[in-house]
Amino acid sequence: MTRPHDFGFDDTAQILKDTARRLLQDHCAPEALHRLAAASSEPARATECVWDEALWRKMIDLGWTAVAVPERYGGFGMGLVAIAGLAEELGRAAVPSPLVATLCATYVAAACDSEAARRLLRRIAAGLSVSLATTDRRGSWAPEDTDVAVDEAGALRGTAWFVQDARKVGALIVKAKSPRGVGLYLVEVDAAGLTIVPDAILDLTRDQAHVELRGVADVQVLAEPGDGARALVAAEPAILTIVAADMVGAAEWQLQTTAEYARTRVQFERPIGFFQAVKHPLVDMMVQIDGARSLVYDAACAFDHEPEAAEVCARMAKAAASDAASYCSGRSVQLHGGIGFTWECFIHLWFKRQKHNEVLYGDGAHQRARLADRLIGRIGETA
Known about the structure:
By secondary structure, this protein is an alpha+beta fold. It has three domains: 5-125, Butyryl-Coa Dehydrogenase, subunit A, domain 1; 130-226, Butyryl-CoA Dehydrogenase, subunit A, domain 2 (Beta Barrel); 229-382, Butyryl-CoA Dehydrogenase, subunit A, domain 3 (Up-down Bundle), CATH 1.20.140.10. It contains eleven helices and ten strands. The strands form three sheets. Strands 1-4-5-8 form a four-stranded mixed beta sheet, covered by helices on one side. α7 packs parallel to α9, α7 (228-264) packs antiparallel against α10 (347-359) and α8 packs antiparallel against α9 (310-335). The longest helix has 37 residues, at 228-264. The protein is globular and about 75 Å long. The mean pLDDT is 95.
């Protein structure tokens, strides 16, 4: 299939991206974000969940939870290319919100073939926030791996790990196994028998938790046992692309902020950007970001127009974005000099978000290993 010009990034996608940038510049500027997320530098502080709920309501009013929902279920039905542009702006602002988690969950729900999944999509379009509770204790996202099981009475028992923004969302998509296979279940966060246990994590712009389910019976079946793995596999390229886009946006902020510092910080009677030891890393940051961004939009385009290539393209994008995030984080701190590793310098917020995103759903090494398994296997099959 022929892919469209500019990855299919049209005027509507540009309007969404521009609107997001303006809103987040006005309501989530670095100074405001630092006051909100880094109010306390005490190492022994309690695990917090801080976010601007008024800003979240503005996002809902603008229809951002509905952008990935098909039109027939009350959404805008925008392509993943447009969603990637939105996610890039979320990363650029490092905004604390459940939107990334909700967008990822939307693609899982859309891959499920059930009336309950269609009802969930309508609720998401109306503003419901949802997160995925689909990872086991080892951090495995593999479709068959889960520590939650369906008991004889049909209730869920076990623990879902590494649940993103668990204390911000209204519902969870839980992966659970039964003798018939893996299924997906919608659980409201206030359901009887469900306990959210916060995790202490590096990223100050998110919260993470493990969710204990002790006989949770009030569930809706989104994907029947045996069909859950298929839905997760179908949604995974979109999830990897969204997280990669977030990293690209954050890396762009790191580059621009560090470049501005290099233009204004004077040493030896010259701006430090005059020196090659500063210039060259900044150029390397730019090159890595541009390469990762191209792969992100290529992956989004493949998901929209060439599904058979979506997984390979998404893993390439996540690998490149993870590598760029790691490099840009290190250089942004280094090139800020002595102030770069202090709490008062804003860049630590983006550094920590990048390190979290880097390993979320697999870092660069993991993605390349999965690519090798798939592509070498394919070569072997055709040899």
